[in-house]
Amino acid sequence: MPSSDSFDYDLFVIGGGSGGVRAARFAATRGARVALAENDLMGGTCVNVGCIPKKMYSYAAGYAEGFADSRGYGWQLPGTPTLDWDLLKVRRAEAIRYLNDVYERLMVGAQVRRLQGTARFLDAHTVEVRAGSGAPLTFRARHVLVATGGKPWIPEFPGSELAVTSDDMFDLPVFPRRLVVVGGGYIGCEMASIFHGLGAEVTLLYRGEQILRHFDDEVRDFVAEEMRKAGVAIRTNTDVARIEAVAGARRVHLKAGGTLDADVVLYATGRHVHTQGLGLERVGVALAKTGAVQVDRHLTTNVPHIHAIGDVVGRKELTPVALAEGMALVDHLFGPAAGQAKRVMDYDNIPTAVFTHPPIGTVGLTESEARARYGAIQVFRSDFRPLQHALSGRSERTLVKLVVDAASDRVVGLHMVGADAGEIVQGFAVAIKSGATKAQFDQTLPIHPTSAEEFVTLRQMTRT
Length: 464
What we know:
The chain contains 11 helices and 21 strands. By secondary structure, it is an alpha/beta fold.
């Protein structure tokens, strides 16, 4: 292996998403010489076409519910509120540009060299960066980090070119009066809820028996029913045969027969890791059948000085996971910050939220996972009409659920469907990560009146 003096950088990061930026920034604080190459806007999927704009549009959709609910509280609105789609897009774009600039400034502040262009491996320690028609730049790096994320994809079928992906939804030129969403994962369900709230007539098609596979079965059933009550048409066991253009619209032909007309057809049937063109095969980096980069517990590939984090490794496609992986890798390569313990990535009890309407918050095991792991479990659950809707008149209900290991009394799964579920479950995630027991939940005094208090007042076991 060449001596350190033969390297231009100690760490070369390919990809300017959340994980790559975090790793670059904190490696630099450890004294490493760092460069980062990104061929698009900084911030990656999360900032530009994922978590951030999605949550902004979810807030926008929530105002429609708020306008309707307010009448039950005595508010008299002058006329019918209407959405200015073009203004919403402008405001979102302004906010995203600000975040892009923040990420750029983070690189400057950390003294990370920022390279605009497409990077690829020439050999195991050499990276080439191309920007436009200019001459490529070549760098030698002691360590290279692949943090290129993933991309939504549309399977090939007749008329597939007429569908759009989730990346396109934030800047549709015209707001769709009729939207067909194909796919029952969290992205499809979120987009269905959001665009319904913004005023579209939405039909969600899913080829499986129930939406949100891999989530707790009771949560899946509950949120599907609430989405239907709100007005989203969910059709399971349904698949698309072809799409055709008809008078400027889209006609969706179903495999079982029948058609649906829509202004936009969104395909949200999965994402592929973004490894094409990196030259990983050239340098012998092992890839899974899915194309994901295979790494060990330290986020290192089979080539010792090439590493990968985030969606490109195909473990947990969540921004906080990419951030945590970035920090664990920095500690592994350059040591922890002064006075701190060295971090190793832990994938247990990762909390997450789905921003459907109503939203989902969850941490720990599903009921079926807990049964498979522990055998004897106890389930505590409640569903209720939140106090807010006593006057709003809305029929929306909230679900809270605890899954407990009977032998240890430890709460191993916590799930919620209802307003502010993500905010509420984030706090309880600390308790779950710390190994809290059901007895400790019971001993905790509630904050009244809140929906969150239901988690510490569940006394009646539902089932074992």
